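Tokens help. Consider this.
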Amino acid sequence: MVDLSPEPNRPPLSAASRALRLGGIAVTVAALAGAFAYVNGTFDPHRLTPASLVNVLEKNNGVHPGFRRNHAKGVCVAGYFESSGEASAYSSAEVFTQARTPVVGRFALPSGSPYAPDGSVPIRSLALRFTQANGQQWRTGMNSMPVFPVGTPEAFYQLQQAQSPDPATGKPNPAAVPAFFAAHPEAAPFLQWIKTAKPSASYASETYNGINAFYLVNAAGQRQAVRWGVVPLARGTADATPSQGADFLAQDLVKRLAEGPLRWQLSITLANPGDPVNDASKAWPADRTVLNAGTLVLERTQPQDNGECRDINYDPLILPSGIEGSEDPLLAARSAAYANSYLRRTREVSQLPANQESRP
């Protein structure tokens, strides 16, 4: 609500001035509403919408009530972040200036099935929520792959369509995915990585990459394009052959945390002028400056059925002052699709019978 009443010691607004101010507010609201309608496809029924993205994930993975539509299988973790102070010159965010910030996270598989075997995919994911003392939050979702397969939401949607079951056979067309990648040369770095990627035996041994670019903003308003990731330290680096069974990752994590906290270094890579900041399919050169922003410490795990991470939407555009999103179109698409998925699964949870276990 906007207060149009006169401030103390200031003459009241004239009728003309009041009309102009109200007119300006109306224009702003109309512009915001128009942007929202455009994103959701109101103006163009053929435009990609958040619902379309979530629908194709449901088509490919099935609907599992109460679960996330992607990264459905996971486990909650909690701990804190210890800042090194090294990033405070680049960002005014409290997470980089305070000694310790509470964290609630979630390890997961990149699959829409909550029952997928842990060895079925080589990618692992880690989402984090940092809650600052001032109440502001930083939420981020990271993956063990170094780059995203494609650079736009439309291309990602087309990739999902290529993996959709053919109504005639009930199975995906085996020629569809190769045809998609043949038409998308930007996927070459991801395809090169996936050729040698193998399922790890532990969430603790993985490096997790933010992939998308963001901006750190310091107290003087200076902006620095960055990408971030977390690199395992000490005990997290020990790995072995994946265990037998479908759920070895959660079992391994519980065992490791029973022996003590697990730690990762938060590494923030600074872009040079000209580095691509709006395309997550393109890597930055390896010689870029990397800050050691601090240490992520995970102390305990919780089942995702009733853990604190269950009801968190790890929207990558929920950011504190001092961190801003880039114009990477995947960020806006992720934010909108996550919200759509969140509304669906929380609605389903509330409708489950009292004796039926929910696993969002």
In short: Helices lie at 15-39, 50-61, 153-162, 176-182, 188-196, 248-258, 329-351. Strands lie at 74-83, 100-108, 125-131, 137-143, 208-209, 214-217, 223-233, 262-270, 290-303, 323-325. The first strand starts at residue 74 and ends at 83. The two ends are 35 Å apart (CA to CA).
